[in-house]
Write a structure and sequence with these properties.
two-stranded antiparallel sheet, TIM Barrel, 12 helices, nine-stranded mixed sheet
Length: 313
């Protein structure tokens, strides 16, 4: 067993394996490409490598582990991984379309270990599949008594009428919620708008339509913009490395989603895994944070490294 420091055992610490960065959705608003193009990972861990790592980590039974992507089901060993993780509360995220779902009995293949549980988060993409296709997948998964927790769609700017109609068709059969778009956009350039506070689509007026703290972990809009909406990064001391265990498809460990998506300074590889250290909390990319990381740092304005040094003096 690989021993881990106490911070990793905190229930709020986010454990996640990115199965693949490949995706069949091609969404123009994809969070992986908010500030450029996500660096592809042609090399992907095998199912055996993923299982050897996660099953040999010291943990309490029922430890939450997210399998994310890309589209998770595109990994060649997806079923093997889900069915052989031991003692985990597994969450799989999926867009519900691809070779795995094309097989008539796909939903019968997922058989987690008795020591594990399976939760499934889905997102409906009307440009990617029909309403009836999505409804059929959700009903088949629920027929097997899998816990399909999230059925949602991304409400992005200028949402076309035909997509609204598709969502309404789904809503007639299945409860579906809107997930707010949290990227950069303006009328002139659309999703290619410059990354700056003025173009950050998550406005306070938008937040008033729902509970931002519950949906996105945003409890302070100014702090959120400070973290995620700046045109230039700055150096800061960030606690996120202590609150996450993120492994990319090739097996590299990163402190946050932004650095993982763009392959910037990984900590280590799982073949020579090491826990985070105090020095790992210094970040040169604060202000470029991905919104996925907001809940794990509490959405407060982070002090700069120079401010920390000044206080220490």
């Amino acid at each position: 067993m690989i021993k881990l420091p106490d911070n990793y055992h905190n229930p709020a610490c986010y454990w996640a394996q990115l199965m693949t960065l490949r995706c069949n959705g091609k969404c123009p608003y994809c969070i992986l490409n908010r500030r450029g193009t996500c660096v592809p990972r042609p090399d992907e861990l095998s199912g055996k490598q993923i299982l050897d790592f996660w099953n040999n980590l010291e943990r309490k039974e029922g430890r939450r582990l997210s399998l994310i992507g890309g589209e998770t089901t595109l990994h060649r060993d997806f079923v093997e991984i889900v069915n052989n993780l031991e003692g985990y509360a597994i969450t799989v995220t999926t867009n519900c379309k691809g070779p795995f779902f094309a097989e008539p009995d796909f939903y019968k293949k997922l058989k987690p270990k008795p020591s594990s549980t399976l939760r499934i988060n889905t997102t409906f993409h009307p440009h990617h599949m029909t309403s009836d296709e999505y409804i059929a997948v959700i009903k088949q998964l629920r027929r097997m008594e899998y816990f399909v927790d999230q059925t949602a769609y991304v409400l992005y700017p200028d949402y076309p009428k035909e997509h609204q109609e598709a969502v309404k068709r789904v809503a007639d059969e299945i409860k579906i919620t809107d997930s707010p778009y949290m990227g950069f956009w303006n009328k002139e350039k659309g999703f290619d708008a410059e990354p700056c506070p003025e173009n950050n689509e998550m406005k306070p007026t938008y937040l008033g339509e729902s509970d931002p703290a519950e949906l996105c972990g945003i409890i302070d809009y100014e702090a959120y913009i400070d973290m995620c909406g700046q045109p230039e990064p700055r150096q800061a001391i960030c606690r996120h490395p202590l609150n996450a265990l993120l492994i990319d498809p090739a097996g590299w460990s990163y402190p946050c989603h932004f650095r993982l998506y763009y392959a910037i300074d990984p900590f280590c590889h799982i073949d020579e895994f090491r826990p985070v250290a105090k020095d790992d909390m210094t970040c040169d990319w604060y202000g470029f944070c991905n919104h996925c990381d907001v809940p794990h740092v509490g959405c407060f304005k982070n002090p700069t490294a120079k401010e920390i040094e000044k206080d220490a003096d």
